[in-house]
Amino acid sequence: MANLLNLLISGLATGAIYALVAIGFTLLWQTSQTINFAQGEFVMMPAFFILAALHAGVPFWLSIIFGVLISLLLLGLVFKKALVDPMLKHGVLPIAIATMALSIGMKESVKEFFTAEAEPFPSLIPAGNVNIFGVEVSLQSIGVLVLAIVAVTALNLLLNRTSVGHQMQAAAQNPTVARIIGVPVERMILYTFLINAGLVALASVLITPIYLAKFSSGEVLGLAAFIAAIVGGFNQVRGAIVGGLLLGVIDNLGAAYISTQYRGAIPLFLLIVVILFRPQGLLGRAEERTV
Amino acid sequence: MRTLMIASALALGAALASQAFAADTIKLRDVAELSGGGATVGTNFKNGADLAVEEINAKGGILGHKIDLTHADTQSVPGIARAQVQKALDEKPYVLLGPGYSGSVKVVASLAAKAEIPEIIGGEAAELTQMGNPYLFRTSFGQQSTMPKVARYIHDDLKAKTVAVIWVNNDFGKGGRDTILKEFAKLGVKVVADQSTEAGQADFAADVAKMKEAKPDAAFIYLNEEESARILKEIKKQGLKLPLIGETTLVGQKVIDLAGDAAEGAMGHVGLTTDAPVPAIQKFRDAFKAKYNYVPDHNGIKGYLAIYVIKAVTEKMGKIDSKLFAKTLHGMTIKAADEPGILMDVTYDEHGDIDRQGFLVEVKNGKQVVKQILPKLGK
Questions:
Q1: What letter would DSSP give residue B71?
Q2: B15, B121, B180, B276: most buried by Cβ count inside 10 Å?
């Protein structure tokens, strides 16, 4: 029983990180029909921005701020202006292929200019255990979970309770009408790119102490987040959250109670089942937009 | 006409002189990972070998012949290793050295065997010496020599009755797992968890939780360096306290750097380490450091040993003969008392595998500390 609780919590913690990355996927899709196949590498890069600052002798907290700012600039603004804007006019497929190329480019640059080996990464949350109802639970897992929940709640408040949030939703749901009623659609789209950059930077800070900083660590994450977004519903932020958490828990429980050899297959199996029986995703609605 | 005669006489003389020079030296060729992913492996091996050659040549060489050693780069790619080995063999060396990567050894070993030239390798995969190649010799332990020692330590010293075995699902991991499971069966140690993991796996929460549930007295962890670091961190995270034993890949400096204090207390069998409390190894370490200004890893020792093995065998034969070299080395014991450069007594078996003492190290304060010397199996 104690074990089950432990597995659940560490599954939820991993799932929360998948969810953060998956939310980015769905946001970009909703506002600009961008499927970002470099999303996994977007999680890998901030860790290296932070490490670069750390190696230059900057204190950890300042390095994190530096890493987040560089992420907002490069993975948000520059990504949109230099890659998405020129490619988007040609349709969804060219942009998907361009982001695939970007992911390869990012991995190779880290390998070339930083290191091909794994690097240790300091943790925000101290190691240790807390006692919950007589069960020892890892402080790190709980910390990751709490920080992710805070981030998602803040995002929800922004989207549903503020004027900017409403404008962003309007821009996503019907850009033409939004433009007519005076919503600066272009700027709203840029905001979603910046939010995505912020989310992946947060995911990076949370996951890298556990996974280690390595050029290839985005591959697993990108795929998991993509599956999470599809399982939950590609056009729903709350779908991405449910998909991410579900995937994290299923992966952990599957590895512990079914088979470690086939753990990689379990999320894909889930994906097939969802696509067969509920193609719009668990919480998604059938696509309304004509692209 | 006269100038032509003089010119040809000079050319002939030069040719004869170079031939005489060639006959006077012992030609060795090393094919190593000097760039690419294995650059540390090959560069250490090269530096160790160069140091030994320098020492031997300074004392007049082997049987009065100076050693002529050159190095070629595999770029850590098996295909390039094969081309470089072919090129080296075309020069008809006395003995071939390297490569260090088991994968590269696998593709080049047949070339050296066909040319009937002995090859002294750095690779450690169990299968290399099981291919029936009579010209292949190791400089370090294969898994079949390591695992019995580890199993014996877990049984005799840790007094563990039950053990968990966590291994990585590739040739290296599976080879180690199969070998140690047999040893545990012989000793009567019960394997309560036998868990495979994937190469490159990032998340070990479920694996550690499963291991926790099996409640073993000790855990044998046989993963590559990065995964070792991740599982050590996860074990610390889940608050699991039990003896953790592995191999070089669990207690190497890279793992310690990655895992931080989660690596504290991890133990492992290490075949060669410059921290060994053996005066000859300390002396080697100092000489190496004086020449290259850094402390070598075990690959540096391998390169150094390879040259001294050649010296010991050649001096025993009393002549330079590649074919006889291979026959002589099988079953031969080289004692450090007779040949100090061999650092520790070593015995070669009929497969080219070695038997030598090993070391059990423990990670303490971010460093390997030798806890115990594990004796030769044949004793």
A1: E
A2: B121
Task: Encode pLDDT of B141-191 as tens digits.
Answer: 888 888 988 999 999 999 999 999 999 887 778 888 999 999 999 999 999
Which value does ipTM take for this structure? 0.82
Adjacent-strand bridge partners of B72: B31
State the burial class of residue A4 (Cβ atoms within 10 Å of its Cβ: 0-12, 13-18, 19+): middle
- Flag whether residue A198 sits within 8 Å of chain B, measured between CB atoms: no
pLDDT, one tens digit per residue, over B196-230 is: 998 778 889 889 988 988 999 999 999 988 889 99
CA distance B309 to B140: 12
Contacts of A118 in chain B (CB under 8 A): 225-226, 229, 258
Sole residue written with tokens 């690419």: B36
Q: How many domains does chain A have?
A: 1
**The whole model's pTM is what?**
0.78
Assess if residue A283 is contained within a domain. no
Interface of A with B in 6-45 (CB under 8 A): 6-7, 10-11, 14
Map out the domains of chain B with their CATH numbers. 24-141+280-348 (3.40.50.2300), 144-270+358-374 (3.40.50.2300)
Q: Which residues pair with B137 in a beta bridge?
A: B120
Q: Please state, in angstroms and rounded to a whole number, the distance separating the CA atoms of residues B368 and B359.
A: 11
Whose CA is closest to A232, among A187, A275, A180? A275
**By CA distance, what is A218's nearest residue in B?**
B202
Q: Is B315 on the interface with A (CB under 8 A)?
A: no
B1's tokens: 């006409």
Cβ contacts (< 8 Å) between B229 and chain A: which residues? 118, 120, 212
